[in-house]
Amino acid sequence: QKQFVETGGGLVQAGGSVRLSCAASGFVAGDWHTGWFRQAPGKDREGLACISATGTMTKYTDIVKGRVIISRDDAKDTVDLQMSDLKTDDTAVYFCAAVNIDSKCLRPSDMKWWGNGTLVTVSL
After folding, report:
1. Any idea what the Cα angle at residue 11 is, between residues 44 and 80, rounded to 5°?
2. For residues 61 and 82, what is the distance between their CA atoms, to the nearest angstrom?
């Protein structure tokens, strides 16, 4: 079964930072454009950041622009998300997914190989 495995979540204080990582299972993450998404309780899944297969292009949504950095570790074949200045509104389950067309990256309905996510809880 092809899917991402997300790690790095946990309980973080507001204003702090967290580094999330996702690893591919059953495929090579470096062959696909990869996005990070999140879903808070009772809300729709939303795209946060995307990185191209080559790692040369990144894009961010306004939701988190300026507070996150997406990157690839080709040696580990992982895609990481560094988030800073966390707010309680950032509390959510964070997911990775892949797509083969970069213009569709960050559109949840076009992505595939979703993992089970990693929970980030931001406390005051």
Report:
1. 65
2. 14
- 10-13 and 118-123 strand pairing: parallel
C-beta separation of 119 from 9 below 8 A: yes
Cα–Cα distance, 36 to 27 (Å, whole number)? 17
Distance CA(26)–CA(30), nearest Å, equals: 12
Q: Which of 111, 85, 107 is nearest to 3 (CA)?
A: 111
Angle, CA of 59, 65 and 71, to the nearest 5°: 50
pLDDT (average), residues 49-75:
94
Per-residue pLDDT tens for 70-116? 999 999 999 999 999 999 999 999 999 999 998 899 999 999 999 99
Query: What DSSP character marks residue 29?
Result: G
DSSP string, 69-123: EEEEETTTTEEEEEE-S--GGG-EEEEEEEESSGGGTT-GGG-B-----EEEEEE
In eight-state DSSP terms, residue 14 is T
